[in-house]
UniProtKB/TrEMBL annotation:
Species per Swiss-Prot/TrEMBL record: Devosia elaeis
Pfam families referenced in this protein's UniProt entry, alphabetically: PhyR_sigma2, Sigma70_r4_2
Annotated protein name in UniProt: RNA polymerase subunit sigma
GO annotation (BP), single: DNA-templated transcription initiation
Species lineage: Bacteria, Pseudomonadati, Pseudomonadota, Alphaproteobacteria, Hyphomicrobiales
GO MF, any single term: DNA binding
Amino acid sequence: MVDFLDELEACVPALRRYARALTRNIDHADDLVQDCLVRAISRRGLFRPRGPLRPWLFAILTNLHRNDRRSARRQGAPLSLDAVPDPAVPAPQPGHMALAELARAIETLPLDQKEALLLVTLEGLAYAEAAAILDIPLGTLMSRLGRARAALRGLTGAPAEPHLRTVK
């Protein structure tokens, strides 16, 4: 049987990846993961091992991020000088530009759509698992994913997904 702390440690890279995608700030993401781990360890007695530890940790991290965003909204966000581009820097390669455009587009999504999209696409979670982490019905998750993908297509100018034709 895998020890709680060993399983917790195995989840850290995925938690960091998800936190970095949510926050787009390495320092803030690391703080978020640390807070998540502290909360998980301190509330270890609340974990009911009906399944893997990973969804429980993702739910904790997601809730902590939501709380941070609510708190930041009340305080206002400071402008980071790192976010201001240096005009003397030449444009990066087209692939990097497309990735940066997609990252900016993801940032414009409403938080509920962004969370759903990142859990399914970045973390590769099954729809049911992502819905459980976000504490929403599966249909709601599917709707959020559909709206997020449609918004990203509109923001990035990507073509619409081809529809399957019925063969008669």
